[in-house]
Amino acid sequence: MTPKARAALAVLGAALLFGTTGTIRQLLAPDAPGPGVAALRLIVGAAGLVAFVVWCRDGASLVALWRRPRVWLMGVAVAGYQAFFFIGTARTGVAVAALIALGSAPFLSGLLGWALREGAPGWAWAASTFIGVLGLGLLVGGSLSSGDALGMLSALAAGASYAVFTVVGVGLSREGFSGSSVLASSFSIGAVILIPAVFVSTWWLTPGGMVVVLWLGLATTTVAYLLFGLGLKVLQPGHIATLTLFEPAVATILGVVVLGEPLAAVGWVGCLLVVSAIALLGIAENRREPSSAGQEAVA
Length: 299
Description:
- By secondary structure, the chain is mostly helical.
- Helix content is 77%, strand content 0%.
C-alpha cells in the first residue's frame, strides 16, 4: 500500500466519524441550537488538538503558526464553515445543505488547489468527483425545491470555506508543519471566534448534552481531524474533499439503521455511487508511484 493510499484510508476514517454527528445529536440532544452545538464542538475539539500537539512536544510549532496570516485565514474559514452550514441547514434543510456544501467542496478545493500550485487534480479526481456528487444528489432525492436562495448561497459559502481551509492546510503542511499542528492552530482560532454562540442556551449542562459535546468535540473533531491531518501532506486538496463525500453516506446509513428513517431505492443507488467514487479514487491513488507526489506538487 502506497503512502497516498494510507493517507486516503485515514481521511475515510475521519469521514466515518464525521458521519456520526447528526445521529448522536438527534438521539441525545435533538433540540440543541445549531450555533451552540457548532461552537462547543469546535472549542472542545480544538482543545483536544492543542493538547495532542503539546503532548507531542511540538508546542513551538503552534506559536510559529499563529504568527502566520494564512493560519488566521484558515481559522476564519473553519468558523465560517460552521456558521454558513448552520444557516444553510436552517433555511433549506440538512439534506439540501449537505448536497450543496459537500458537493461543491471537491470542485472548489481541486480548482483552488490547482490555482495555488498544490498540484493538478487529474482525471481520476474529476471522474470520481462527478460520480460522487451524482450519488450524493440521488442520496438526498429531489428535495432541492424546498430550499430558498439565501439558504443555498449559505451552503455554497460553507463549501467554499471548507475548500479554503483544506487548501491552506495542505500548503502549510508541505512547508514542514505537521498536520496536527496546522489543524490545532487554525481550529483554536475558529473556536475563539465562535465562543459567543456558547451562551445561546444551557442545553449542554444536561447529561445527554455533555455526552454530545464530548463525542462531537473529542471523537468527531479531535480524533477525526488528526486522521484528516494525515492526508494534508500527501494528498491534493481536491482528492481530500472528494474522499469526505463518504460522510453523508455514513450519516444516511446511520439514519436508516439507528433512527429508523426511510430511504427510497434511489437513495441506496446514491450510496452505492458515493462508495464507488471513493473506491475509484482510492484505486487510482494506490497505483501511483510514491515519487509522483513531488512531481504533482510542482505541476
